[in-house]
Design goal:
single chain; 259 residues; alpha+beta; DNA Polymerase III, Chain A, domain 2; 2 domains; eight-stranded antiparallel beta sheet; five-stranded antiparallel beta sheet
Length: 259
């Protein structure tokens, strides 16, 4: 595996996937970050079993080359060291190379670092969600929905279901509801072309939505939201954010607000 990449793009992707990596995981390989290099570009993956994030850096976009001199391959790098190394590199381009024994060399200007990689085959495969239950909305609107509701989720684990945000589509409207039993935040928006947009009521962990909100840039691009039995996927052009859903029935909140 070998490639040369723009440091700024690499740093941005590393920071995004780091939000899904925890040092407290019981699966040792998940303390690392998976790096997959192909002719199309570089994909980084981080996961802690609850949240999984994939960030893709295309080889070229809008006439700008981000990755060059590509020799495809994949490995897992220790997330404890790799982000610090990238942050301290002196030049705008970074060369990353690994040999057959997964010894990784990172070069930039006069700086050179050596890391031991791990076997990418040990890294769990992220599920590819294929579902009819999906819809799209502008990213800045989703960020608003999250900001205006997630602050009201419960931080107490005594009622785990209240640590999430209840999301549902009803009567052509998308609704986000959060409560910690003392306060309640609710935001409804009408959906464009609501026909055919299905979404079973789900409860997304507040922690997942907070991390997603940090990663997404304010933009008018759209984001696709897909749901299966126990997971929700948020997908943009170069980002894939997967979170587990909370199990259980969310309390009926409509009765709490007087007519």
């Amino acid at each position: 595996m070998k490639f040369i990449i723009q440091r700024e793009q690499l740093m941005q992707s590393v920071q995004d996937v780091m939000k899904a990596i925890s040092s407290r995981t019981t699966i040792p390989i998940l303390t690392g970050m998976k790096l997959e290099v192909s002719e199309e570009g570089v994909k980084l993956t981080g996961s802690d079993s609850d949240i999984s994030i994939e960030s893709f850096i295309p080889q070229e976009e809008d006439g700008i080359v981000y990755v060059e001199n590509i020799e495809p391959g994949s490995l897992v790098l220790q997330a404890k060291y790799f982000p610090d190394i990238v942050r301290k590199l002196p030049q705008n381009t970074v060369e990353i190379e690994s040999d057959n024994y997964r010894n990784v060399t990172i070069r930039s200007g006069n700086a050179e670092f050596h890391l031991n990689g791990q076997d990418p085959e040990e890294y769990p495969q992220l599920p590819q969600l294929h579902t009819e239950d999906s819809f799209e909305l502008p990213i800045d609107l989703l960020k608003n929905l999250i900001r205006q509701t997630v602050f009201a989720v419960s931080t107490s684990e005594t009622r785990p279901i209240l640590t999430g945000v209840h999301v549902r589509i009803a009567n052509g409207e998308l609704e986000f509801i959060a409560t910690d039993s003392h306060r309640l935040a609710s935001r409804k928006i009408p959906l464009e072309h609501p026909e055919g947009k299905n979404l079973p009521p789900v409860v997304i962990p507040g922690k997942s939505l907070t991390e997603l909100n940090k990663i997404l840039d304010d933009s008018e691009d759209t984001i696709e939201v897909s749901v299966t039995d126990n997971q929700v996927l948020f997908r943009t052009k170069h980002l894939y954010f997967l979170s587990r859903l909370l199990e259980g029935n969310y309390p009926e909140t409509s009765r709490l607000i007087p007519e």
